[in-house]
Structure formats: structure tokens, C-alpha cells
Amino acid sequence: MSPVFQVVLLATLLHASFQAQLMFDVKEGQPPPVLVGNVANGMGPGYRYILVSPLEFFTVDTNNGDLFTKVTLDREGAPCKGLDLCILNVSITATAPNSYDSISAGVKVVDINDQLPDFSVSSFQTTMSESASVNTMVPLPVATDADYDPRFRVQNYSLVPDIMNTFDLVINRTSRPDGSVDLSPNLRLIRKLDRETTPSYLVTLMASDGDHEVRLPIDIVVSDVNDNTPAFKQTSYSKTITENTTKDTVMLKVTATDPDANENGRVSYELVSNFQSKILDSFKILPDTGEIVLTRALDKEGGTTVYFNVRAYDHGVPSLSSLANVSVTIEDTINDPPIISLIFARMKDGNCSVSETEPSGMAVAVILVTDRDTGNNGVTSCSVDSDHFKLTSPRPPSEYLVVLSSALDREQQASYVVPISCWDKGSPPLTSTAEIQVFVEDVNDNPPVFTSAFYQMAVKENQRPLEFVGKVFATDADEGVNAQLRYYLETGVKAFRINETTGYLYTSGPLDRENVSSYSFKVFASDMSMAPLTASATVSVDVLDVNDNAPQFSSDSYRFKVMESASVDFLLGYVNASDPDIGPSGTVGYALTSYPSQPDPPFAISPITGALTLTREIDYETEAHYNFKVIAIDGGVPRNNKSVDVWVDVIDENDNSPVIAFPGPDNQSVVLNLGVSPGHEVIQVVAHDLDSGENGRLSYSLSAPNTSVSRLFWMNEDTGLVTLVAPLTLGDVQTYNIIIGVRDNGQPQHATQALLRVDIVEQSPRARVQESYTTIVIIMVCVTLFVAIVVLVTLCFIKYLDKKKFNADKHHHQHQKLTFDPISKTTAVYLAEGGGGDEVMEKAHKSGNNLDAAPTDFQQQRFGSQIRNGKKCVTFDSAIRESDVSMSSDSVFTQPDVGFVGLTFNPPSLSTFNRSASPVFNPSHKNSFSGLSSSGLNIPNIQFLQSPLSGAPTNMPLGSSNSSRSNSIANNVHKLDQGLTSQLLQQDQVVDVALQNHNALVRSMRHNRRTPDSVRQLRPSSASHETDLCSSSSVETSDSGHGGSELDVSVIKMNV
């Protein structure tokens, strides 16, 4: 706001030239817009209201005359600051075609308690002499309140905490010319002070305006006395100055005296203003002299009066003070040019605008001319220079209307410049000029037009939200907002949205072609005018298919049944799947896949029809149920698929006859003692049928030519149990041939027969003896098992001792090898020198003829890999064969496979073996033994005790060793001879241990590819024979590799 306008406005507020017809009250501090009131005051319809002044504080509704605040009004600020009564004069012009009127109103700004009391200092300290008399007064700082209404100024003071036993608070009240009261708090002493007891007091002075409180800390220091207050020569001062008074001019001097001496009597001055802060900006007082000096120029302030207080205080302790009132009147003495203020009836971009359809006489703007001068200096006149606009006659105080003098046409001229001149009647007159830029506004007389009445678009389904679909476009021939278009869709369209500005069409969310394949809706374009015009077009959107659906089967699983006799290509049925997609994405093909448990099901599926057919013959007895998956695959990209479980139940047919397991051709006889009682279960017929259900349920029957069979025996038809049903007599002792019949219950029915021979015999002493023998045999078998365990433990212990001995003296051991030939069931003994296991057999001595002289039948037994006597034969290479069998036939003793029941061992006198000879078994000599030819060798005798079924026992000489190990073997064998029967020697477990040890030795030699020297010399250069070793077990024990002290033992096996 310009200074000139401020002066004019202030003059308007202070000196209203006419009585306001309307009066409104509005409280300060309310944010705009606040409805002040209606200024129409009974005006007829058709008037348009234009606010002339004051524009910075109010606005008016041009249509109904409602007056609103434009800013937040402040009773303590401009323009009410310093005014006793703040009434803002409002001037409004009411216009109609060829008619207008002026409306004046007064708006009283009502003060509210929105300001807090304020102390000028943050704390206060005063000193009081301890000799001060009771009732001594100490002035306290005065709190000021910026609120204008006296009701909202400081209303009360109080002290905290309560020190009424020493001080109390005395409040002085001073009346002001406007009727308000100033409060001055004073601290009063009510009892004598004792500085030595209490040197100071700390209290808080609280000032309250009724709604707010402020606090001021006060420190009272006990000291000496200042008991006189400065006194002004007069209680009030007044001064009149002109507005052209220069800065730093001394306007007035106030004087106060204090009869006290020294600092207590030295007086200083200060300005005090409770609510006019600009006074402190315009004046100052010299603190030592009391001269009031002007601090700024007062032009534009003519015609006003300001009020303030001057405080005089001494410098005693405590300081005493007093107040005097000062008023300054400012006279108007400067001639200023008129001030032109333009108020536009309609604004556009900060300029005046008028519609091209406005009729003549319609007001375009209001010219407000103000001149704060007095007399002729303040009388003004105005004029305009235009063919289309004119001024109306002035209205008090100086108000003109700019109205249309002729119709306007925007198409011919879009804007006009209207020059304005205003001058006063001073001497000389002063003139001011202004211009109005009037823009002719366009009228919204053209509707939008789409580029096409129909838009065809397409979008894929399942796209993300806000997927671009297409664009619509429309134009409007108007200008400005009349040509600015807004696009929108008809109500109810939820699948799409449109950009209001660009016309771009988007999806609101994913679309599903399977639910809605196309959309058709209206799109509208509307301009942005106050009375918008609208156009429409039709949009059709096709939803393009995406392969987003997997095929769906008509059932969660399928189950088919088929007879096991069904032929190849038999049709089991169909599986059906559909896909809601279209085109290749909706075309469904079928494939069959299997489970690992049934990797090759005998079925095929048509990839087009889903027909399941049989690919090969099936058998219920082999597989009764099939489970596999059928996959339905569409033709889209990418392909989608869905699988379903298919179950095929094979229906059993009666295609299998019952099979009788007992009685059978090899076991069809049953013996019954004459003493068996009725109810005795003779046999349980064991039969089965591979079919199931009734086809596999068996029924049993018996028949015989002998009529006594039905009298003696009964068969349970359901279980096949044959039971004796009648007592047996001597006349029943005979053999009965019974035909056992088993039939199933299928269609057609199948039956099978078997012969059962039942011998009824009279019980004899011999039978009882046989029963005793049976018991003995059972006992002997148990003893045999126990002894076998003892033997195994013994062998392990011997092996441990040998290993220990070998480690002690590795180079001086001699070893005896006892081997067993499982083919001929003979035993051979030979001596070996060198290490065992992985070590090389360094020397091997033999006596007698070479192995090549052995009978041909022995060679045929030894060579080849075959199964003999239920044993597995393992074939080794020729090197091992020669090291195993290339021994002299003269030094071999053999024993046929006969039923021995005992073994006796006659220990010889031990002597040293001759290393040049090694006794071995010769398979060609069945019942003879050839002793060693070396001298000094005593051969012990082994007697084989023959069973009752065999001939006389045969004596077989056995070579002996000079080692303690030979004695150990002989003693162990002798101990075994004392407690074993023929069943002990038959145990396969013992034989297996021997075979495993033998295999370990051979494997070790083969691994190191070592052969005894004597064997290398005897081996034919072109030998290619293979030697086999028969074993009852395919498991070989690994060679311990502990050298020549290992004893590899093969035990002689004898069959009973």
C-alpha cells in the first residue's frame, strides 16, 4: 500500500464525511473469509455490487452483496492502531444497466483478548535498606498489554510465594483520559528488615489480564533507603506540531524533581506506551534532560493525535518513579496530488475485463480519488478519453464509475486502453493520471467436436492396471477456458479410465476375455467454462485373448474298468478337457505319462479325442490296477497344461485253474497210527488260485473207490482240512487212495485233482525206537553247533598266536599247509617256505611224480568253472593252479566220500620233515595213502571209523612236522575226535571257514603275481589250463597279510 493511500485511508477512518447507513461488528483475529453482513439493504434484483474501499480488508459478492473479510483483522494493528474506536468505513457501488447507487457501511473491529501481558525486563532486582520503615513502598515493573480494550489489559498483580509476613503488594490505580485505568504494582514493607537474618528475598510478580498470566522474577536485596519519588511539575503535557516538522526537532521538555540527594535525587526519564508501538518509533526522550525529540518525518500523518506517557525515576535504591501524560497533535500543512485507485468489476490476469455480451451502461470499473489535503487542496475532478467508455457523475467523497457507452465485439477488437485524468483545485492544481487496460472476454458459444464419432480399440487381457488402450481427441473453437477440454466416461464404466487432459484411455485393472470379450461405452468432452458445453463419441474396445487358462478336465480323476481278456485297441473310454481360451490357446491335446511304479502302462490316448485304448494284452494276476496321468495341453504360447489321475481297474476273469501244492506227486503219502483218535487232523490240503474274488475262492472235496473213505475221513469244503471222523480198528489197517478235488467258484468253473495215499498202520516197537532216534539226532545237532562255535574260537586264537610268533622271528619259521579239495573231498598236506599272505612262496619241494601224471579224470574234475555237488566253483589262472596242484602223486593219500561217523588220531613221535618232500592228496588213489620217501619221517596213523553202512576203517599215514604248530594241530584234531560224530564233520559252516582262508591265500598270491620256485620249474610253458575252486559261499575273507606264521586250514568234509 502506498503512503499516499495510507494517509487517505486513515483520514477516511478518522473523518468520515457522511454518516454510515449500515453498521456491522466483526471480531478481530478471525481468518478470512468471515461474513460481515449483507449490504444489499433492500436493493432490487439485477444489481451488481462493486467494493470501492477499503479493498485491502474486504471483498463483496458481486451478485448478492455479501460483505466478507479479506484479511485477518487486528485491533491492535493497522488501521485500528491508536484509535479509540476502530470503525472501518466501507463504500460499495451497486450498478445495473443505466443505473447505479452508493452504499456506505461501517464495520466495527471488536477487540478480543488475544495479547499476553508483557514485562519489559526478564527479571527485576531491587534493594531495600534494612533501616527502612514499615510501609515502605518499592515500585515494581509494570506489565503492558497490547490489547486495546481496557477489559483485556492487565487486571491484577500478585506475588508468589506469599510473603505477607514481610511484604505485601500494593497496586496503584491511575485513570486515563479514555476512562481506562493503569495499574502500578508496588512492594510494601510490613515489618522491619534484618539484613543479617535475611539478606534478600526472591519472589515472583504475576500479571494477569483475566485469561493470560506472565511472571517476573524479583530479587529484593536488603540495603539502604531512598524515600522520595520524583515529582513532575505538571501531570499532563500537550503539544501541536505540523506534519512538515523536521526530524530531530525537540518538541517538548518535561521536568521532574526529587528532593533526595546524590543518586537518590538524580532523575532520569523514559517513554512508556502500553499499546502504541509506533510512538516509540516516532519519538524519543533524552533520559537526562527530559527533552522529547522527533525521530522521523511526519508527512502523511497530518490530522492525527498521538498519546504516550513519560516516566521519571531516580537512581536511588530502591528506585522511585512517577508518570506524566503527553499528547501530540499533528496538523495538515502539505498539498498532495490526488491519489487514483482503480477497482475493476471483473479481473482477468490482473487486468480489467468485460464480456462481449455486456450491455451498454454496465459498469466496468470504479475510480476512487482521494486527497488528504484540506480546503480546495482536497477538492478533485476526473475525466476519461474513450469512444466506448465514459464516466458517471462523481459521488461523495470522490467516486466515479467507468461504464460502457456502446456494445463491444471481441472478434473486431480484443482489448481497449482507457486513459483517466484527476486533478485538485489547489493553487497551483496538481494532476494525477492512470490507464485502464480493458480486455474483451470470449463467450462460450462453440461446443467441443470429436475427430470421430466412433473409436475402435483393442487391448490384451490380463494386462497390468493403467495399460494404454487408445486415444480420443476433440477440439473447441473458443478461447481460454472455453477451449480447454476435459474428458470423462459415462457413468458405470469401471473397466476403463481416461486421462481428463489428454484423452488417453487406460484399463482400470486386468481384463478377462473369458468373462467379457468386448466393451462399448460413451466418452464425453466438456469445456472448462462456467456453463460448459459437451460433446460425446462412442468407444468400442475388443479384449484380445491371451493364453491365461489351462485346460480343465471334466472330472478331478477318471476311473475305468476293463476285462483282462480285452483285446488290443479296446476302447476304455474318454477323458475330456476344455479351455475357455479361443483359437490355438483353446485347442486341447492329450498325452499320457506314467508313474515310476508303473513305467509302461499298456494304454494309449488319442491326442485329439482323449480316447483311451489298450495297447497290449493285460493280466489281472500280473497287475490288477493301473494308475497314470493324462496331461491336457493347449496350443497357446506359452503352452498351459493340466494333468489328471486316471485309474484303470482290471476285472478278473476265471482264467486260472486251482493249483494243489500238497499233496503233490513228490509228497502224497500220509501214515496214520492205529491209535489215532477221531478228530485228528490228517492233512491240510494246500491249494491256491491266481484269480480273485469268486474266481479265486476254492472249494474242496474228496472221493475214493473204497467206501470206507467216506466213513473214516471228512474234508472241510471251505478250508481243505481232512479230519479223521471214526475210530480206527485193525480192519482199517490198509492203504487208502483218496482223490482230492479242488474247484474254484468262477464262471466257467475250473477244477483240479490230486491223489492222496493214506497208510493206516499198527504202531510197533520199532517205530518207538525210531522216535527215540529222532530225539537223539536233535540233541546231536545241538551239540554239533556248540562244538563248531568252540572250533571257530580256537582257530581264531591260534591265528593270533601265529601272528605274534611271526612278528618275533620272521625269518626262521616253517609252515605247514593243510588244504582240502572240495571236488574230490580229499585232504593234502604240504610244506611251504617263505612268507604267507602277500609274501612270495619262495620254495616248494615235492616228491614223486609230476601232477601231469595224474589220471585224466582228476584233471577233468579240477579244470573248468561249473557247479558240483551244489557248490559254486571259482576258476583261477594257471599260475595259481600250478602252485596249488603240482604235487607228486606218490605222496598222496585219498579217502572216498563215505559216511564216516568218527575220526581217531594216533599221534606219532614227532620228527623233522624233510623239506624235499611234501605229502599231498592224489585224487586218482581212492583208498590208499603214499608215505613220504624221505628218511627220518615218521608218519602218524589216522583211523577213520566207519558207519554201519560202510566197510572196515581205513588207516591213512599223515606226515608230521618238527614244529610245535604240528603238535598243536594234532592235539586239536585228537580232541575233536573224542567228541564228534559224523554230523559234526558234515557242517557246511566249518567247511566255509576253510574255503575262505584258502581263497585268501590264493588271492594274495595272485595279487603279488608270485609263484613258488618249484612250481615255476614244473609249469609247462604253454599251459593255459584254468583251475577252479569249489566253494559253498561266494564270500571270500581278505588275506590278513601277516606272513608265513598264518595257518590256512581246510577241514576235511565227510558226508554221513
Strand content: 35-45%
CATH architecture of the domain at 118-223: Sandwich
Average of pLDDT? 75
CATH fold naming of the domain at 118-223: Immunoglobulin-like
Helix content class: 10-25%
Brief rundown of the structure:
The chain is mainly beta and 1056 residues long. The chain is built from eleven helices and 70 strands.
How does this model look, in words?
- With 1056 residues, the chain is mainly β.
- Among the domains are: 22-110, Cadherins (Immunoglobulin-like, Sandwich); 118-223, Sandwich (Immunoglobulin-like); 231-331, Sandwich (Immunoglobulin-like); 339-441, Sandwich (Immunoglobulin-like); 449-544, Immunoglobulin-like (Sandwich); 552-651, Cadherins (Immunoglobulin-like, Sandwich); 659-762, Immunoglobulin-like (Sandwich), CATH 2.60.40.
- It contains eleven helices and 70 strands.
- It has a five-stranded mixed β-sheet with strand order 27-28-34-33-30, with no helix packed on it. The chain has a four-stranded mixed β-sheet with strand order 1-7-6-3, with no helix packed on it. Strands 9-16-15-12 form a four-stranded mixed β-sheet, with no helix packed on it.
- Strand 60 (735-744) and strand 61 form a beta hairpin.
- The protein is elongated, with a radius of gyration of 70 Å.
- The model is unreliable at 1-20, 813-988 and 1009-1056 (pLDDT under 50).
- Residues 1-19 form the signal peptide.
- It is a single-pass type I membrane protein.
- It holds the Pfam family Cadherin.
- Its main location: membrane.
- Residues 1005-1056 are annotated as: Disordered.
